[in-house]
């Protein structure tokens, strides 16, 4: 298994992986446009040349970053890849001087296992909601906000 930063040739596989879950309402969808624009945020897990996992570290504000777009291929669920992706992103965040990570998720139990704690959405800076206006669910966000100090 290789965990590495994404490059352009990964975008189609990431798009397919994320949007298959999004179609089932398990995560928010990502357009190709967004994936291209945020390519440097993305980390992929690759096995035998196939992309089987993805996660994103998005810098938000002073010493604050978000874990986003986390997904692993259905046949690999609960084999530790999600944890490895998050912990690799945590390492990257630490190098950048991030002190607090947050996520908005439908999988709070998974993130709780990784040391994230549920917080009120009010604790997040207003800037976080800038991109939410593009979400079909806005303004009725039903994701759970979670934070982890690193
Ligand atoms: C959520 C997801 C990324 C987790 O990745 P994963 O590789 O399956 O998780 P891991 O195997 O690394 O699990 C780490 C720990 O969390 C637990 N866990 C994983 N998914 C869980 C869930 N949905 N509920 C409760 N616990 C969960 C595992 O059992 C493991 O616990 P352990 O440390 O006691 O063994 C993966 O299930 C997935 O891609 N789901 C579909 C897309 C999705 O929901 N993405 C999140 C959008 S917010």
From TrEMBL:
Q: Which segments constitute the N-acetyltransferase domain?
A: 1-135
Gene3D superfamilies the UniProt entry points to: 3.40.630.30
Record keyword Transit peptide present: no
Give UniProt keywords alphabetically.
Answer: Acyltransferase, Transferase
What are the EC numbers? 2.3.1.1
Recorded GO CC terms: cytoplasm
InterPro entries found in the cross-reference section = Acyl_CoA_acyltransferase, GNAT_dom, NSI-like
**Gene Ontology MF annotations:** N-acetyltransferase activity
- UniProt enzyme class: transferase
Q: Name one Pfam family in it.
A: Acetyltransf_7
- Entry's PANTHER family? ACYL-COA N-ACYLTRANSFERASE, GCN5-RELATED N-ACETYLTRANSFERASE 2, CHLOROPLASTIC
Q: Kindly provide the name given to this protein in its UniProt entry.
A: Amino-acid acetyltransferase
Query: Origin organism of this chain?
Result: bioreactor metagenome
Instruction: Specify the taxonomic lineage.
Output: unclassified sequences, metagenomes, ecological metagenomes
- The record's gene field reads argA_5
């Amino acid at each position: 298994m290789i965990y590495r930063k994404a490059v352009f040739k990964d975008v189609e596989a990431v798009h397919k992986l994320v949007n298959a879950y999004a179609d089932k309402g398990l995560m928010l969808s990502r357009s190709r446009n967004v994936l291209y624009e945020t390519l440097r945020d993305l980390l992929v897990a690759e096995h035998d040349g196939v992309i089987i996992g993805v996660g994103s570290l998005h810098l938000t504000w002073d010493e604050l970053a978000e874990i986003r777009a986390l997904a692993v291929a259905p046949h690999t669920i609960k084999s530790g890849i999600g944890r490895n992706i998050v912990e690799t992103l945590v390492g990257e965040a630490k190098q950048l001087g991030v002190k607090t990570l947050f996520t908005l998720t439908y999988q709070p139990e998974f993130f709780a296992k990784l040391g994230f704690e549920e917080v009120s959405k009010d604790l997040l800076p207003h800037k976080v909601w800038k991109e939410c206006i593009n979400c079909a669910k806005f303004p009725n966000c039903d994701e759970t906000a979670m934070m982890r100090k690193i």
